[in-house]
Fold this sequence. Notes:
Blueprint: H1 14-40, E1 43-44, E2 53-54, H2 58-64, H3 67-99, H4 106-118, H5 121-131, H6 138-145, H7 162-186, H8 191-199, H9 204-215, H10 217-233, H11 236-241, H12 253-263, H13 267-296
Antiparallel strand pairs: 1-2
Helix pairs in contact: 1-13, 2-13, 3-7, 3-10, 4-7, 7-10, 10-13, 12-13
Amino acid sequence: MDHQQRWPGESRYKGWFYLLPGLLIYLVFIFIPILETIRNSFYKWNGFSNTREFIQLDNYAKLVHDAQFLKALGNNFIFIIFYSLIPILIGLFLATLLGRKPIRGLTFFRTGLFLPQILSMVVVGVTWRWIFNPTFGLLNTGLRAVGLDNLTRAWLGDFQLALPSVGMVGTWVMYGFCMVLFLAGMQRIPEDQFEAAELDGANGFRQFFHITLPSLRAEMGVALITTVIAALRVFDLVYVTTRGGPGDSTLVTGFLVYRSAFQQNQLGYASAIATIMTVLILVISLLILRFQSRGEE
């Protein structure tokens, strides 16, 4: 290898040629649209006319006083509980059960528990909308079958229960991802650490909190970032199940962007909402990475 650390005959630009197709796709379909969205957020535009009115920061000023946006943003943060915190706890529990000792049919259990993650969210939404149906849905039918008629509800039509009902669907989708991620992390923990802890008299709980949990710090960071982003970007599940209803009880910013842009023809205002959410997701992701890196020092 020569002084430039390349194989004989290898061009220094060869790596860039490998990256070029993916880079072009990213620029055309992601980066340029993001820049265009930011630019549109400073205009009043219906998305169809050839003229746009430059209104500076008026769209952003409107957001501060928009009760619907504040309600939608609050619902997104509530979804973090269902999309992130609960799935991570369930994933840790399942990974602990499946990861330490060999279990017959382990591959089947892993595949079955991970299956919701690979299903289309539209398919998931349609399926759970049928399950939650107050008349013939599987949930209410099962409650009636065991004599719990008083617990039957119009789950997606109840102002108090609609949000947690949709949120639990998100939990069902996300916990499999967290479980597989933690299982992969547990496989790199040396078994002799657990054996030494057992010899010292540490029970399963102590081993989990002092060995397993600290060793999964990197996987926890990945799971937290991925699931929080999913909670802040949620749209398709809400669109298919409730469309933000009843009232605004399940309204999220993703659906508000859709409604503002395509139903109310306020593309500039919708772009401002999307820009704010992009910045918020970026800031939260950086904060999680910062805390994770501090913990690893």
